[in-house]
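Example record

One chain of 352 residues, shown exactly as stored in the release files.
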Amino acid sequence: MTLAKNTADLAICSSSYESLLITAQHVARFPSTVLIEGETGVGKEVIAEYIHKHSPRAKMPFTKVNCASIPEHLMESELFGYEGGAFTGARREGHMGLFELSDKGTLLLDEISELSPLLQAKLLRVLQDREVRRVGGSWSRTLDVRILACTNQDLNLLVQRGIFRADLYYRLRVVYLPVPPLRDRKGEISGLLSYYLQRFNEEFGMAKAMSEKAVQWLTEYSFPGNVRELRNLVESLCVLSLGDTIDSADVERLLPMVESHTESKNSLNVSQLNTLDTSSHHKSSQDASSHYEKLQPTLAQAVAAVEERMILEALQQESSIRSAAKRLGTNHATLLRKMKQHGISGRNPKGG
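Predicted structure tokens for this chain:
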């Protein structure tokens, strides 16, 4: 099986990513539920859209909902709709939910891990019966909706911790498509840099090039924000670089923590890691960056250090936690959870 021709909106820079798209294109032909799992910024929504576009439902609605962005007390009516007079403020004529609006089409449930236990139970019933009942309604509607679900969490781990329903997990995981992080797809970085550089050159009417050393620097960077971070970085380099060639100095100004490939790297053992002070709620982003530059922890610890640094910097640069979450490309609830994991206080964002 070969890829369809209309992939101009995708940067296919490696055989592994092409293999993922081939699998997605094959899966698209069937109505099966698909769970797409991967870190923030890896392109899960792109894969979901690709599946819809190559499915028999391509001309029908493709509806996306972020399960973390809608307050819990509104999510039920958003998903399933409501009858007139179901609650105070409800429209007299009632309201169609996203499931009804997606009939004969595809519904993407992004950040599925953020659903409350109550909504998990209701979603399970919809997946089992293929019927929805509006809030305040007395009868159910049969629907033909293809469900795609995305998450940046390990749902299996959440099941083991009792946070996510096991029965819903197995209903969603009919077809499982894991999207690996960019740090595990190093061979794609140079191709992605070239793709996005060409894209922004066309968009901005530029003719910028990127030096070999700049590419070398960037291929060594871990890109904790994955493809989304790489895309935004290329845009920043195009906008901020003064010459026609983006060189390593331009990269270094934006990513001072990136080590040159010619520099030696120190190792870090477990006992040294245990001595790192992570108890303070008011560590500066410079300290977090310094640990990341000078030490070489395990992959998980390195990712955690970069995540912590990015959160601290966003909090310092923005006026609120909500705006910091938007800057980081995540949502308010997820950022609060991450801050709690890293022991970061929310009392000192920019502006007090």
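Notes: The chain has a mean pLDDT of 80.
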